[in-house]
Amino acid sequence: MARSLRYDLGACSRHDPPKRPRGVSTLLLINPNTRQSVTALLHEHAFAAAPAGGQVFAMTAGFGARCISSEPSATVAAHAVLDAYAAHVAALGEPGAVLIGCFGNPGLLALRELTAVPVFGLAEASMRAAGAEGRYAWPTCESCPCSS
How far is CA 33 from the centre of its chain? Predict the structure, then answer.
């Protein structure tokens, strides 16, 4: 698992992440954009942080935008996340947990409604980890870095 997921997230409503079960050994990492280089980078970091014996499967969206920078591209990305999850389940069965590898967490709430496995997003996990350390700030940019 990614280091930012190694803490008790608590359980609140159905839209909040469930507690991370002990012994999750299979992580499905879904990159909602279509850039395989991003998937490779995410996989490298997740694999390096995974516990011994853990498996990390990484999937790139089969359709959508190269960069998710608008509401329409986020909507398509959410569909691509659901599609990737379904393809993984059909081929290999349910993973132990899912990490959506995009800061906007597209498809997070929909996937949580469709599966019983824990589903996390990069933004949510990062903010929870940062918040556990105290106050934090999140710098943003005015223009989309993927459009240049």
Answer: 12
CA distance 104 to 76: 12
pTM: 0.78
Give the phi and the psi of residue 50 in degrees, each rounded to 5.
Answer: -70, 150
Q: What are phi and psi of 36, to 5 degrees?
A: -65, -25
Domain ranges in the chain? 3-147
Q: Distance between CA atoms of 88 and 61, rounded to whole angstroms?
A: 12
- Fold classification of 3-147 is Rossmann fold (3.40.50)
Distance CA 48, CA 52 (A): 10
HSE of 85 in the Cβ direction (CA atoms, 13 Å)? 29
pLDDT tens across the length of the chain (148 residues):
332 222 222 333 334 444 444 455 899 999 999 999 999 999 999 999 888 888 999 999 999 999 998 999 999 999 999 999 999 999 999 999 999 999 889 999 999 999 999 999 998 888 888 888 888 887 766 665 565 4
* Residues 9 and 128 sit within 8 Å (Cβ to Cβ): yes
